[in-house]
Amino acid sequence: MTAAPSGPGRGAKRTAIACAGLAVGMVGLAFASVPLYNAFCKATGYDGTPRQGPALAASAARTDDSMVVHFDTNVAPGLSWKFVPEVSRVEAKLGETKTVFFRVQNVGSAPSAGVATFNVQPGLMGGYFVKIACFCFNEQTLQPGETLDVPVVFYVDPAVRDDSNTAHLSEMTLSYTYFASKNGQPVKATVAKSGSSETKGDF
């Protein structure tokens, strides 16, 4: 019986197959990691991503301490919308549930769809800014001239004062950017401010 051929050629083939398998596995892992990373950020507040959770009991609120929350609104290029908060900032007692409305208007001449992304600054506040309800990642379709008011319901976790990295903070910013969207997904990958950052709080 003739022995199976061996040598550099066969070894190179095995290496190529192994590399191809590794590449496929890495691509699959990359796609799988996106939702896992998003879920991790929402649960922990990592990377400036606000947590999501239920409201605190009224007894948990601290009436002797508060946080000033500023609102920053932006529209990415390619979406002819106007986007402003009802107020430019609020003072929230720690643990107190607050509701703030934002107004979006299609100022273009054709129907268009958009979806909002968000972030908190300083990034360390992401773990203590808790969203109970939010319009972010919900695709909205507006007709020309149509206006829509959308709310965000949130509280600032009193535990912010127990963290030496955030105990001294008295102000933070919640920032939103609306992107043109298709099938619920932003079609622009680059976050950019609109020609006029209209965070004035004058509906």
Automatic annotation (TrEMBL):
<protein>
    <recommendedName>
        <fullName>Cytochrome c oxidase assembly protein CtaG</fullName>
    </recommendedName>
</protein>
<keyword id="KW-0735">Signal-anchor</keyword>
<keyword id="KW-0472">Membrane</keyword>
<keyword id="KW-0997">Cell inner membrane</keyword>
<dbReference type="GO" id="GO:0005507">
    <property type="term" value="F:copper ion binding"/>
</dbReference>
<dbReference type="InterPro" id="IPR007533">
    <property type="entry name" value="Cyt_c_oxidase_assmbl_CtaG"/>
</dbReference>
<feature type="topological domain" description="Cytoplasmic">
    <location>
        <begin position="1"/>
        <end position="10"/>
    </location>
</feature>
<dbReference type="GO" id="GO:0005886">
    <property type="term" value="C:plasma membrane"/>
</dbReference>
<keyword id="KW-0186">Copper</keyword>
<feature type="topological domain" description="Periplasmic">
    <location>
        <begin position="34"/>
        <end position="203"/>
    </location>
</feature>
<comment type="similarity">
    <text>Belongs to the COX11/CtaG family.</text>
</comment>
<dbReference type="GO" id="GO:0008535">
    <property type="term" value="P:respiratory chain complex IV assembly"/>
</dbReference>
<keyword id="KW-0812">Transmembrane</keyword>
<dbReference type="InterPro" id="IPR023471">
    <property type="entry name" value="CtaG/Cox11_dom_sf"/>
</dbReference>
<keyword id="KW-1003">Cell membrane</keyword>
<keyword id="KW-1133">Transmembrane helix</keyword>
<dbReference type="Pfam" id="PF04442">
    <property type="entry name" value="CtaG_Cox11"/>
</dbReference>
<comment type="function">
    <text>Exerts its effect at some terminal stage of cytochrome c oxidase synthesis, probably by being involved in the insertion of the copper B into subunit I.</text>
</comment>
